[in-house]
Amino acid sequence: MSSEENNGFGPIPRKRGNGCVKFFSFLFVILFMALAVTLDDINSDEVLKEFHIHQRRDVNETVTPFVQQMFGSVLNLAKILYVSSVAIIFLVISELIRRTCLLTEELRHFRERYNGKILKVLKATYRVRHYQSLSVLFIIAIAIQIMIYWYLPPVSAKYTYRYRDLILVNMAVACLTNTFLSLKIPSDVEVSELSERDHLNVAHGLAWSYYFGYLKIILPELENTIDKSEWKGKMKDGALPAKVFIVIPESCVIPGNIGEDHPGITFEKQLPPVLKHRAGVKDRPYVNSVYQVTDTRKGYPHYCILEFATPVSSLYDMSMHPESGLNAEDRHQQVQIFIRTLQAILDSAPECQNRCVLVPICGNDYEKYPLADIITRTIHQVKGETFNMDDMMGDSDDDDN
């Protein structure tokens, strides 16, 4: 069912949200509650006596039940805070040790990779995205340890004595497993999320290059270009939408000639070129073509400025090249990101808004998804007319019979 969406292209995924953070927050609450239940009890009377000694007060001083109950609650909270702060300190120190191991390798390459600047090596090795929040959290954990050690010595003494060996062993094991078993290598989901968040995909570069190198040049001048041509009258009466229809096939296979390769679509004429001085080339021409698309439902022609998205052909070529490291599955993911990124760019550019229509298609089965029918439906949608693709396909079947 999903493969039928977007003219056989399939669904275009949305940007990832924060579902992982929400679920982790839920698990954190559950684990924190479990921690509060499973921690060993410490005799509150003993701790209260130690507290009196620390405060230089009479150990035989009578304490009301209310005070004793409140002190027991504070003691339980102190136990939770103590264990939590130890865990935070353990994680931070373990990560520092791991990154120090990375530093020993990076120092061997600091001249060629970092221009001989040690500071750049340190930043590249130890910098984290949310270092301010992490620093505050680490300082709070240290402060909790100091306060508990100072005001509630029995809590600090008991848990430090009981778990000190386990803490040290865990730190060593964590460093070893993260290094030799590659547990710190991000999963495919994390790599994909990082690449999309930081715009590191091939598709991001292709989309931005397509925008700056082509669309940003032709789209703002589109109406002026049509005004200079014989199509001016058809644009004003609505026969030729002042939009560029860009077809993006999921297969990434780009035909050389739309008019010959797709029945029902006929090349009409080129629009006057937009001339720009680019990269040392004087008056480099940027040309668009007008096509006639036959409406198989009503039998009359439509006119539109039509072309395929040439950058996606690079994805196809890369998937065929053994050195690119891009397989067919990666290509599919990249063309999805290309569409989403390009649409976001166009929506955020006032000079290009409402001047371009992206048309995703399957690209592998033009008999099942005829391009002429897809463009016809898209033109009707752009004009705000109701249009039922299933009805049109049914009429075509009747005609065949």
What's the alpha carbon Rg, rounded to whole Å? 33 Å
Number of strands: 7
The biggest sheet, with number of strands, parallel, antiparallel or mixed sense and barrel status, is:
5 strands, mixed
Number of helices: 16
Average of pLDDT? 77
Structural class: alpha/beta
Question: Strands of the biggest beta sheet: in what spatial order?
Answer: 2-5-6-1-7
Distance, first to last CA: 27 Å
* Percentage of residues in DSSP E strands: 5-15%
Helix content: 55-70%
What tags apply to this protein structure?
401 residues; alpha/beta; five-stranded mixed β-sheet; two-stranded antiparallel sheet; 16 helices; 7 strands; disordered C terminus
Detail the topology: elements first, then pairings:
Blueprint: H1 19-38, H2 44-54, H3 65-106, H4 110-114, H5 118-126, H6 131-151, H7 153-180, H8 188-197, H9 202-218, H10 222-227, H11 232-236, E1 244-249, H12 258-261, E2 265-270, E3 274-278, E4 281-286, E5 289-294, E6 301-308, H13 312-320, H14 328-348, E7 356-361, H15 371-383, H16 389-400
Parallel strand pairs: 1-6, 1-7
Antiparallel strand pairs: 2-5, 3-4, 5-6
Q: Would you kindly provide a written description of the structure presented here, covering whatever features stand out?
A:
By secondary structure, the protein is α/β, with parallel strands linked by helices. The protein is built from 16 helices and seven strands. The protein has helices at about 20-40, 45-55, 65-105, 110-115, 120-125, 130-150, 155-180, 190-195, 200-220, 220-225, 230-235, 260, 310-320, 330-350, 370-385, 390-400; strands at about 245-250, 265-270, 275-280, 280-285, 290-295, 300-310, 355-360. It has a five-stranded mixed β-sheet with strand order 2-5-6-1-7. A two-stranded antiparallel sheet has the order 3-4. Helix 3 (about 65-105) crosses helix 5. The longest helix is centred in the N-terminal third of the chain and has 42 residues, at about 65-105. The radius of gyration is 33 Å and the shape is elongated. The two termini are about 25 Å apart. The model is unreliable at about 55-60 and about 385-400 (pLDDT under 50).
